[in-house]
Amino acid sequence: MSAVPVTGGGARGLVSDWSADRQAFHVPWGKAMMWVFLLSDTFIFGSFLTGYMTVRASITAAWPNPSEVFALHVGGVEVPLLLIAIMTFVLITSSGTMAMAVNCAYRGDRANAATLMIVTAGFGELFVAMQAFEWSKLIMEGMRPWENPWGAAQFGSIFFMVTGFHGLHVTGGVILLLIVAVKLLRGDYAAAGSEQIVEIVGLYWHFVDLVWVFIFALFYLW
Question: Is the pLDDT of residue 25 over 80?
């Protein structure tokens, strides 16, 4: 067993260590970079939600009641948060299909992994479509980024900013899922290991789902 050479201290030793091309942690670069990206995204969403809580707690104007703002009329009856509940169910279900896709990829079942990723993308597209319907309904009822008919004007600006930013993430995830699924079926990842790219995409998708849980709790339940 050959001994590992010991470098000197100071700047020269630091340069020698970094240029030795040794792997300190047994984590693929793709997965590591995805974790870095998700960490930075956590700071962004965390800042948005912290700003929302600060405004909500400090403002003197009446804050809109989510049960009234996000209600749907079904058969002449006003049902609070019905659309939001369906959207949440769809997104959580998509997280389950994504987990199944990762499991299939690690078992070497590329066909089912790709199929489940396409199903996950379908759930994501359905979520975005329902969000577009929600936005259209609120806009027709008079809600704008600078005002709304239910109370504090800040509600509209924060709502459109946070839900829109999350919707962009879901849309980007849908595109990524479809691209990877097609490449997976073609065997483009056979040499590199298909399970790694599927797991990396899964990390992103689970993050998007987790962020929605916080948005759901703060915007629609608080």
Answer: no
